[in-house]
Amino acid sequence: MTRLKLAARPRHLRTLLRDTSRKNVAGHDDEGDVYDLCVVGAGPVGVQSALSAATTFQKRVILVDAPRASGMHMNEATGEDLSLGSPTGLFSKALRDSSKTIRVSSLRGVGLGETSIWNEIVGNCVDLSTQNAQDTRRSLVSAGVSFVRGFGTFQASTKNSRRSDNASENIVEMTAKQDGGQGRHITISARNILIATGSKPFRPSNIPFDGVRLFDSDSINTLSFLPKSIAITGSGIIAIEYAKIFRNLGSDVTLIIRANSPCDALTKIGLDKDVAAALVSDLVQSGIKIQRGAQVKQFLVPEAAGDGTEHIGRLRQPIRLLLEARDGGSLPTGREDEISCDAYLAAVGRLSNSEKLGLDTAGIDVDKYGGIHVDNRLQTTCPNVYAAGDVVGHPFLASTGVAQGNAAVVAMFATKSSKIPRQLKCNPDNPRRCVCGTCQSGASFDPSSLVSNPSAFPTGIWSSPEAAFYGWNVQQAIDGGLDAGESKALYSECLRGRVFSPYGLLKLVFEKPAGRILGVHICGDDACELIHYGMELVKARRTIKDLTASLYSAITYHEMYRIAAQAALDRAGTRKRREAQPTQVWRQRPRVCSQESSTHPLTTSGILP
């Protein structure tokens, strides 16, 4: 048995979720009342885990929502919590959608003020967040999941709490405190706890974050004006996404990266080299400036003016960023060493959000970044306490976190009679040797692979264009002892691509000579949707020949799968065809990943087999 103490928030801030058989837990403090599972954290991982336990296993579940310290998580008009069930990146996704539908230049052209334009953009984001929160709330009510708002921490008495020979009877105490340390304490008893408190941005100590003009990747949600110029430090997924978002909104964008090559920085997080080159080339083509091998050594911020709504947006005095080389020296002669901008964003990584949980008092081990250590059942070093999602560390993806949460719930409650969906093993001849890294059944499945194995999850970058990948790239396959090859298709080689989005590529990685597909890598429109078909190809052990015989609905991007497969089987013919039509298929762009090359990776020299 696991026992928690929680502090309830005032009634007007409480979400009225009710258990169908008992009154709302926020008004219930009977310490003898036992839940099967208490989930701490109401992001996508916590919510989906709670729903899985309540619906699949018919367990009694309570969800504890830890209030977020930053971010646009409240609807000021209604007082409604917008963060319920939403990933940390929801704001960026909503802002991205707004940047594609709202023409800022047109609004300026008809005389609309900057404040009105920004209010229109933020209004769209609030509407999307509100709809997501309301849908989540309805799902929890329907499943009979109880809900309480508070922040839980393990207490010092945890180590000395009652323990039984039966692990299911161990008692752990947690206390949740309302913001400011006040609020009524409620004791909740549960047989299992799942920690799903997510992550927080890494905040370098030399940056004077103020939440007005200098932001991290969470507090950017509170931006109150549309900057005419913004500087972003970072070379990862979040930095790339925001760079394209603000550029699409008409801002001048400068991306500051410590690496000498932006492509090298992207390949380190898993992107294929050609996909990384195409993505970075698009950044440059759209007008985004990239400062390589640099870092900010000093921030010169003028005093804030006004209330941060109208006056800040019109502030004439810009922020000044003084740059230096990444090793602390001076930048090479001729390189710009000062940047002026209206706003600054540091998107330099995320850390597990575990420091305020009192994990050490419960004997729960963490790494140096705060990530909770879990075993192959996603159980922590404290019996009956599990963890999933960003709080366990890499890869910091909502989709992977949800899979981890579901795996933890299965570990808690599954029995031999439980009807759990089983997935096809990629290597049935030797089920203990998983080639794709994603087998989620039988002896080969290790839930911890969802943390450590980059082949075990699809990754998407919601930039414009999108980028996504699943499985191995060719070098990873070779390092894994396989004879691997790769083939490519361009968006401009399928009819839909020629009409709507000619710039982008799809790459297949396959095993020779059988042609079994090992990985898929995409850069272009709808890449984050197209990748799921590629994921199924890998998991189903489909081959290149299978794709050439497949039938796809006319005028769809999926035709590129067949085109890439044909390129693998007829490399000479593909080369001849592409050489004959270079001006129709490719557009020359400056190559940004190599200073020596003047061609883009999608030109004939880079794409031909």
From TrEMBL:
Annotated stretches, region: Disordered: 572-609
Cofactor(s), by name: FAD
Domain Pyridine nucleotide-disulphide oxidoreductase dimerisation stretches: 458-562
Pfam families in the cross-refs: Pyr_redox_2, Pyr_redox_dim
Record keywords: Cytoplasm, FAD, Flavoprotein, NAD, NADP, Oxidoreductase
One Gene Ontology term from the biological process aspect of the record: 2-oxoglutarate metabolic process
Chain intervals with Polar residues compositional bias: 594-609
Domain FAD/NAD(P)-binding: 35-405
GO function term, MF aspect, one: flavin adenine dinucleotide binding
Gene Ontology CC: cytosol
Keyword Transmembrane helix: no
E.C. number(s) listed in UniProt: 1.6.1.1
Localization in the cell: Cytoplasm
InterPro entries attached to this UniProt entry: Class-I_Pyr_Nuc-Dis_Oxidored, FAD/NAD-bd_sf, FAD/NAD-binding_dom, FAD/NAD-linked_Rdtase_dimer_sf, Pyr_nucl-diS_OxRdtase_dimer
PANTHER family: DISULFIDE OXIDOREDUCTASE (PTHR22912), SOLUBLE PYRIDINE NUCLEOTIDE TRANSHYDROGENASE (PTHR22912:SF93)
Role description: Conversion of NADPH, generated by peripheral catabolic pathways, to NADH, which can enter the respiratory chain for energy generation.
The protein's name in its UniProt record: NAD(P)(+) transhydrogenase (Si-specific)
Source species of the chain: Grammatophora oceanica
